Amino acid sequence: MSAVEDRLAGLDLVVPTVPAPVAVYVPAVRSGSYVFTSGQLPLRDGQLLLAGKVGGEVSAEEAYDCAKQCALNAIAAVKSQVEDLDQVVRVVKATVFVASTPDFTGQPGVANGASELFGAAFGDAGQHARSAVGVPVLPLDAPVEVELIVEIG
Question: Quick one: pLDDT at residue 58?
Answer without folding.
Answer: 98
